Amino acid sequence: MAHSRGRTTRATVSFACGSLLMVRARYHERTRLLAPKQLLFVGRRVPCPRMIGRQLLTDYEIVRVLGQGGMGTVYEARSTKTGERVAIKWLHVRPFAPDDPDLLRFEQEARIAGSLDSPHVVAAIAVDHDPESGVPFQVMELLDGEDVRALLGRVGPLRPDVALRILAQACEGLAAAHAVSVIHRDIKPENLFLARGGDGEVTVKLLDFGVAKIRRTPEAMGAGGALTAPAVSMTQSGQVIGTPLYMAPEQIESPKKVDARCDVYSMGVTLYAMLAGAPPHAHVKSLVELLYAITTQPPPPLAESAPWVPAEITRFVEKATAHAREDRFPSVEAMRDALRPLLPEGFSLRQEALVGVTEEERKIVATHAANPLVASAKTERSAETVKTARARAGRARLAAAAITLVVLGIAAFLLVGR
Questions:
Q1: Is 100 marked active-site?
Q2: Which of 146, 173, 240, 297 has the fewest Cβ atoms nearer than 10 Å?
Q3: Which residue among 102, 186, 263, 327 is the active-site one?
Q4: Record's Gene3D superfamilies (predicted)?
């Protein structure tokens, strides 16, 4: 997805491009696909093709390279008819089988983005194949601004009202996806883009539907505007999809059975990161330890990481990130509606508001009472807490052991291959 910030246009290329850092015993939050097939893609670098000046679809002339990732390149292009600036997302040249998971994800991203009529979802204009090389590409809107991850790196924790406004607008885009049975599965600060308008207004855009899941539900089958799930699965059985730091427990334990509430959880973790400057388990360096922590215990209290955050917002985060999905907001619409009392002036956001918490504000310690939103649920579930925790811990240990074996096996394969 092409982005620009300030006077210099930047690009963030979001492709499912393997886990090189994990094989090298280092964990990075951008690792998204944890499965042997993806691990075998590590280390590949394809030179950026010389595309400047080429025309695609008889209309778009490529102007310059915006960025390059492990599996693709993003270019800026200009319409020769209207002068409109767009982004061209181009996969690297290699043979693609019709059922290649990377190709299917690439095409699905464009199909989903192009079908969602929301100002809070990045627009896909076209998807096609280059007639000369057969390489697939997307034509997408070119955004000016930065993603939330970049903003946090620049200013640190955000003021609570700013974080809530960003989340509320993201909920609008996610609600449009859920309405057609699309589960994003990779909500995180990097996939929330703050697009600047000419009047200083900021619009939050939801990015990257490359690993989204289209649910086959009776409601979706009967809805005229619903998307159709792909006939060929894009994932292997048991494959973990998402960015570990922002994943819901069920994405690790039962990835094939996730529903929209996994996005609610990831939105809650993203809000936590905006308020505290980092997600709940950012201190965990081992991937195995991270997966174990997510599946066996709730996130550390936000009041410990950001004591200046008002109690009602802390309670909101706790409900969104409840360990059991039955205890979360039942839908992203319910999550959005719960934000309205916290934002009586509405969800609009302006560029000048994108600042961090001041030192004076950090010194304020909010009063945090017990959370009534989750207390009743905890009481009702107390009888099964011990049994459930033990079962989760057992599954997490097995999953951690399996992932460790896969990582060690692939690392050994790569070393022997040298």
A1: no
A2: 297
A3: 186
A4: Phosphorylase Kinase, domain 1 (3.30.200.20), Transferase(Phosphotransferase) domain 1 (1.10.510.10)
